Amino acid sequence: MTPELLQTALTRALSTACGRVVDLPATVTLVRAKDPGRGHWTSNIALQTAAVLGRAPRDLAIDIAALLRAEPGVRSVEVSGPGFLTITPSAPAAQLAAAILSSASDRDAVEPAPAAEPAPASAQSGSAPSEPMPDDAVLDEVRVAHALARRIERVAVATGVARLAAAAPADAGLGEASAAGGAVEAGTDEAETALLTALVDFPRVAGDAVPARIVRHLQGLAEVFHRWVDSHPVIPTIDEDVTGVHAERLLLDRAVGVVLGDGLRLLGATAPERM
């Protein structure tokens, strides 16, 4: 989220908190946080407007923070001191997911990969081929992960997470990231970084048009997706508010579903919504 978009989000949150349209005073500042570990931007909006609105600055800041957390481009908001806001925009993960979803929406169809060649005679005589072809059990692992991603998306719609998951513009498309050798900015932890890397690397693997390699990549993506889901719940618990973090995770979940579905169709296999 750019500073300009964040200013707009602040104005919207302030107006909602007050129940009427409020213009930001000229003295309201949005500056880089001194401690990046706690957030990227700080704002004194509550301190500058509380007196005019007849509110306690910290109480107003708490209300603004709650509204900002629902913005799709905001990852977290903290309130400190008498009413300062510390804001962290969405991580690169959301930008990458948005790029994948955007590129997927631009494709008319996915062409199937070339059919697998028969196994060499050496493989038929008992020695293992250098590129073993997948059986249905392996493809089912990918199908299960695809169905899980779709199920999470359906639950996200029912729980309100999907309303916050508007894709933010990405700095670079998926193809550009893949052309850079699959290098991505680190995610929030090892599981997210592994997931991002697998997503970014898919176009290169698919471009090789070698079915066995595509399957291995999809199988690896399915495995890291399961690990990521276990430690990064997309759906909030019953006593937890829906936040921008959940919306950001939903974007990644959708991106995984798109890539797994595209990969299965490249192989001429089905990509079921439910299993």
Automatic annotation (TrEMBL):
Gene3D superfamilies: Arginyl tRNA synthetase N-terminal domain, Isoleucyl-tRNA Synthetase, Domain 1
Major enzyme class: ligase
Chain ranges of the Arginyl tRNA synthetase N-terminal domain: 4-89
A Gene Ontology molecular function term of the record: arginine-tRNA ligase activity
Annotated stretches, region: Disordered: 108-135
Top-level taxon of origin: Bacteria
UniProt-listed Enzyme Commission number(s): 6.1.1.19
Record-linked SMART domains: Arg_tRNA_synt_N (SM01016), DALR_1 (SM00836)
Pfam families in the cross-refs: Arg_tRNA_synt_N, DALR_1
Residues covered by the DALR anticodon binding domain: 142-275
GO cellular component: cytoplasm
The protein's name in its UniProt record: arginine--tRNA ligase
UniProt lineage: Bacteria, Bacillati, Actinomycetota, Actinomycetes, Micrococcales
